Fold each of these.
Amino acid sequence: MPRLKWPTALTRKAIARTTDPATAMLPRVPRDAARFEIDRVTDSTATFRVREAQWVRPGLSSYVVDPAQRDGLVARLRIITRDGESATALVTGQVSRVKSDHFLLVVRPEPRWWQSRLFWAGSVLGVTLGAGGVAVSR
């Protein structure tokens, strides 16, 4: 049976870095997320204006980041309602308290396969080539 070695100085330093809250790396959210200003915050919800972002709908996941900490993750939320130009999100996980000076990021959902232009272009091309092949073979 192999003997377990005590942690080396390098691994001790790595352990200390990950457990020290001042130097711990905060998780990051995707860079392609849309950024919204938070209007109002309650204990468990955040309300924000969506304006022209028609794709924002209930059920989407969102993140709250702190711009003072280089967009460090503050909380995870799920959008529960949308009415006109504003939407409300429920806090599902929280690192620190959500404030109105934080920003809410929402990742735009991928289009469904039948809504993709590439799908329809491939379908038209396939039908055209197939019909052309049948016409030539006769």
Amino acid sequence: MKTLHVVGFKNSGKTTLVSHWITVLKHLGYEVAVLKHHGHGGAPELPPAHTDTVQFLEFGAVSTLVAGGDMIQLIQNKERSFEQLKALAASSEPDVLLIEGYKQEVGEKVVLIRNEEERQELESLSGIIRTEKTAELFEDITRLDDWLQEWVEARL
């Protein structure tokens, strides 16, 4: 499994790029998983309050897992290490794991910047293999898509 982080500050285009790259990689025949850091403070949004899943959590379950229709939804009320989260994301045996965020963790990184101040703040991160300006991200997206394909194929 190949692993690539897409990092940057809030609203730098991380989710947009990761979403686009999922479609690119899928078109190339790869299975893709995503691990996203919820950097907006607090817990991620839960399903609607009337669901069984939320009821189980409200009554004290440390985790709930719902399975059906070739899909699994897992919610846990427990902090996990980055390595444990990667293992969970990789449990579907993808060819590529795209990681949105987790900029302080070890791994190859594409850094998205909006200005020179952000470049200076992020240039000390470990594992940077490419830096892109957010404003130029989709001006010639095929250039970046070609780079991604080469990156994946070099790691086969």
